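Here is the promised in-class demo. Please do not try to memorize the tokens; focus on the logic of going from shape to residues.
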């Protein structure tokens, strides 16, 4: 928008200032001497020239849209930080996951001096994140906390306890172990375990971390739970009939981001969506269009303060609701 305020300088003076600055690469100090004005006046002249349309800026980079997505997402959802990864040129899902993990690891490094405890979820996104964290000697040891109970021995490297141990090693810090299965044999066993001192302390510790890193699951039938055979087809149907569209930590949720209750979900042990909303900085990591709607649900419910996603998810999140 052009300024309606009358300029204190002639158009010729303004044009001379912008040519010297943008084309001749003179400093504002040099221009002030050339034009016989003060350096602060040069700054005002350059701003006035932009407002009057004498000079235009155009960012010419193939990845300009990435920065635009990041700025728009941060503003739309009121996030601390957003980083978007490009999927251009048919990049592999592996490469995209690695870069998301790398960006999340870099963010952790930036925040280390501000936190005492770090929670870690489970699954592929959390695993890629931990893999990309550098070995760092911190000033004060941190406490790394698993957010859900242990899983089976299959694919142990994506489980919360293992990831907490690995992250603690890299940060030369301490870690907790969640001494309970994420899936109890029955809801009665789950209730009994949650009443035990050891599990109560594990849950309390998980609920009170300063920041937490986690992925968000896609549709139940395509989730990691299903891929690793942690959940039966009958249990998937039970969840979907109850309205489940995805999961986060050990919580399955519906299209409104509300925890759903089934015989299967009552057997799960770990923190839930409401717990996540009380954590100061929840870092969500995801790639693939199939995760977009569930990321949107979490952000709409104020679950997530920091976001690392690919451009496919970013584009979907910026569409009108």
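The designed amino acids, position by position:
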């Amino acid at each position: 928008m052009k300024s309606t305020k009358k300029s204190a300088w002639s158009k010729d003076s303004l044009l001379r200032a912008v040519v010297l600055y943008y084309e001749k690469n003179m400093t504002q100090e040099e221009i002030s001497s050339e034009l016989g004005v003060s350096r602060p006046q040069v700054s005002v002249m350059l701003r006035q020239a932009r407002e009057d349309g004498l000079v235009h800026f155009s960012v010419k980079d193939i990845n300009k849209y990435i920065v635009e997505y990041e700025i728009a997402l941060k503003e739309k959802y009121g996030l601390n930080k957003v980083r978007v990864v490009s999927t251009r040129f048919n990049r592999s899902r592996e490469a995209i996951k690695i870069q998301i993990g790398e960006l999340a690891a870099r963010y952790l490094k930036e925040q280390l001096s501000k936190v005492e405890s770090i929670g870690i979820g489970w699954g592929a996104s959390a695993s890629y994140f931990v893999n990309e964290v550098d070995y760092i000697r911190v000033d004060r040891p941190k406490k790394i906390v698993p957010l859900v109970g242990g899983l089976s021995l299959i694919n142990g490297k994506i489980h919360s306890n293992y990831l907490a141990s690995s992250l603690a090693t890299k940060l030369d810090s301490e870690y907790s172990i969640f001494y309970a299965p994420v899936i109890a044999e029955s809801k009665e066993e789950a209730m009994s375990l949650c009443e035990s001192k050891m599990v109560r302390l594990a849950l309390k510790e998980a609920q009170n971390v300063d920041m937490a890193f986690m992925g968000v699951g896609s549709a139940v039938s395509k989730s990691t739970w299903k891929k690793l055979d942690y959940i039966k087809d009958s249990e998937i149907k039970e969840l979907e009939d109850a309205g489940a569209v995805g999961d986060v930590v050990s919580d399955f949720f519906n299209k409104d981001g509300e925890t759903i209750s089934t015989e299967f979900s009552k057997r799960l042990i770990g923190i839930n969506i409401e717990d996540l909303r009380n954590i100061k900085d929840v870092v969500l990591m995801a790639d693939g269009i199939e995760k977009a709607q569930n990321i949107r649900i979490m952000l709409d419910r104020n679950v997530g303060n920091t976001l690392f996603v690919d451009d496919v998810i970013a584009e979907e999140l910026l569409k009108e609701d």
